[in-house]
Design a protein that fits this description.
By secondary structure, this protein is mostly helical. Helix content is 57%, strand content 2%. The protein is globular, with a radius of gyration of 24 Å. It comes from Anopheles culicifacies.
């Protein structure tokens, strides 16, 4: 059964359920309905109008934005494709993964994020690649057999969207590996924690499987410039795991702030910070590290361009390459994906600071934008963060959270998110009006509610 047919069945099932709810509502007296839902207007079989306050609906709903976008490209694209999920290899991985239930292996958290596909992860990347492909269109020289006219994209672009999600997923799964020995004890016999050893094997082999299939599918596109471009994105993902200081479990730590830190007022003009890192000239070369550790925004941007933005940006660029678009437009596609991923990351970084108090035992990234900006404002906070050189669990996250809440880091992060959202919007505004362009704009606007 094709994914398009599956999506159609889901839509019909949803419509049937809605009709069932309406039918059920007509069988209940309107007085009881009004008692149970006192602030909503209930429409029954008899024409009835109540001047009641309607239920507030968010202006830009994330789930609705993604759902509408998936309809535009033909069917849901999140979390790889159905043929990968139903393969024997993935089924075996899922079977072995059940053995880890009850342990504290981080691979379980990664699997939960991927399966539930919440709005705070980047598993909608394939969808974004397909939307930008449809919004830009393709050159007239593209053969008809290559076109998927029902969705308005090319078959090769759909394959690239799958490749992008497989590479991203493989990277997330590989990050679930646990360091079983500190460096000073390397070479000794491993402990008796069989669950952790088994979890490491599953994380390593399943990530390798996804990455290997992505490389095989990429080679099948038979496009040498595209292979070089996506390969450079894989290199950037690898570099992201070695950038900056780390604890013994490879959790990232911020660099030591300069004592003569820039004030929040003078550093709040984020538009003056150059975030090119040399990728405007040739983005297949390694990114430049010059002057990165002297600026919190540069450090934050480089971390997340290496770990996320490079892959999304180069996938958007590659989609335009497959469509036969000119090189300047391909470069704009790279900038769109790069800025979109950074805007997305800024929204995610703000989430732990949406409440005044951190839940008991709660943790967040110590290299998130609010923390880095606060260190620029108050370098004394680094004394607490420095306790995490062995393990980030030694850091008092509640203390760090309280200090960041009182500083300028949150407002500067909001300004940072707006900056990258507008930069991504600027690229979209250069494209002709279309339903795909509107869907991408809605996704950017819906990120404000994350």
């Amino acid at each position: 059964m094709s994914l398009a047919r599956i999506y159609g069945l889901q839509a019909r099932l949803r419509s049937h359920l809605q009709k069932s709810v309406v039918k059920l509502a007509t069988t209940i007296p309107s007085s009881q309905l009004l008692e149970s839902v006192p602030r909503r207007c209930i429409a029954s079989g008899v024409v009835r109008h109540e001047k009641l306050a309607p239920k507030p609906v968010p202006k830009h709903d994330w789930n609705r934005a993604v759902s509408e976008a998936e309809k535009i490209v033909g069917y849901p694209t999140s979390f790889l494709s159905l043929r990968w999920l139903l393969s024997d290899e993935i089924a075996n991985v899922a079977l072995h993964l059940r053995k880890l239930v009850g342990s504290n292996h981080p691979l379980l958290r990664t699997a939960k994020i991927l399966i539930y596909n919440g709005k705070n992860n980047m598993q909608a990347w394939g969808l974004i690649v397909l939307l930008i492909s449809k919004a830009v269109g393709h050159a007239p020289t593209v053969p008809d057999l290559e076109q998927d006219k029902s969705a308005g994209v090319l078959q090769s672009q759909r394959g690239l969207a799958e490749i992008t999600e497989m590479i991203r997923t493989a990277h997330l799964v590989h990050q679930g590996l646990v360091n079983l020995q500190p460096l000073d004890g390397a070479g000794n016999e491993l402990g008796s924690d069989s669950d952790t050893i088994f979890g490491n094997k599953i994380a390593l082999l399943s990530g390798d499987y996804l990455l290997g299939n992505a490389c095989l599918q990429l080679a099948g596109l038979r496009n040498q410039p595209l292979i070089e471009l996506i390969s450079s994105a894989v290199r950037d993902l690898a570099e992201s795991n070695f950038f900056g200081e780390r604890d013994q479990q490879n959790n990232p730590l911020p660099s030591r702030p300069l004592q003569s830190s820039v004030s929040a007022e003078s550093g709040s003009s984020a538009s003056s910070v150059d975030l090119s890192f040399g990728d405007l000239v040739d983005n297949t070369q390694p990114l430049s590290l010059a002057g990165v550790m002297d600026n919190p925004e540069k450090e934050w941007a480089l971390r997340h361009i290496l770990g996320a933005g490079s892959l999304l940006g180069k996938s958007c660029q590659g989609a335009m390459m497959l469509a036969g678009q000119p090189e300047p437009l391909q470069r704009r596609g790279y900038m769109f994906g790069k800025h979109l991923s950074l805007a997305w990351q800024a929204c995610i970084d703000l989430e732990p600071f949406n409440s005044d108090q951190l839940p008991s035992g709660g943790q967040f990234s110590l290299v998130s934008a609010p923390v880095l900006f606060h260190l620029d404002h108050d370098p004394s906070l680094y004394e607490e963060i420095q306790k995490g050189l062995v393990s980030v669990d030694n850091v008092d996250f509640g203390k760090v959270h309280a200090k960041v809440m009182k500083g300028p880091g949150i407002e500067r992060t909001r300004a940072l998110q707006k900056k990258h959202s507008l930069a991504a919007m600027d690229v979209l505004n250069e494209l002709p009006p279309s339903d795909a362009r509107t869907a991408l704009q809605n996704i950017i606007l819906a990120m404000q509610d994350i």
